[in-house]
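Input.
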Amino acid sequence: MAEHDLLTDRFEVQRAHLRAVAYRMLGSPGEADDAVQEAWVRLNRSDTSAIENLDGWLTTVVSRVSLDMLRSRASRREEPATESLPDHLESPTAGTDPEHEAMLADTVGSALLVVLDTLSPAERLAFVLHDMFAVPFDEIGPIIGRSPSAAKQLASRARHKVQGKGAAPEADPARQRKVVDAFLAASRSGDFDALVALLDPDIVLVADAAAVDMGSPEVTQGAAAVAGTFSGRALAAEPARIDGAVGIVWAVGGRAKVAWDFTIRDGKVVHIDMLAASDTLDDLDLTILETDEETDA
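Output.
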């Protein structure tokens, strides 16, 4: 059999898996097919003799193509071209046969897709590859241009949003900003009751290891406890866009020292990640916002 025919056969064996990855990344069957086709084009242009792990190489290429498509979509603020789907989810695991993966790719619940669409492109990729396809973080990091620890943090934040109860997290930056501004005002003025009113009763504040070393509890749960943590404080904190969502940051000389990544749902803060590890902060897509900045600009 000719070398090209062998390559074609190996690609066809992986096609269902690649489509499953792309579909969970993009939420659109048509765009998923486009990503898989682009992987085939790039494979034909590559020196396959230098590819040690073809399956892993193809997954990486499809992931990068999907990430580029997500970022392009986000920059244009487009909605994914999703189709009506059953409201249930079955997640594949490593080793699932291709035919089964192809079936699962068409049965991802529309409710989950709505939540996935609220994630930043990097969060979505880290979550999909690790939690749905068991790809290790040392392989995910290079795809998104982050360290493995930063990729792990992205997946963790995405997981909190995906596993949250009730409606999908707020995706509109303007509404996110309104909640964050109210949170900062209440915190700075020490208005405990106003802070509690902005927090979900079951809110969880999770601090990374560096923040714990600074004196923060690893986990603070409940509106009253979290409000007590911020009431009368955050005087130097500023609103910031953190991986596409609005949160707050304490920065010195324009360099972030601590970031608080908010998950907002139905006008209330439901989860906060407190991030102080220098490598995590360096890897964040973080922009400090002007106090009078229009969030829909």
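Confidence is low (pLDDT under 50) at residues 82-96, 98-108, 293-297.
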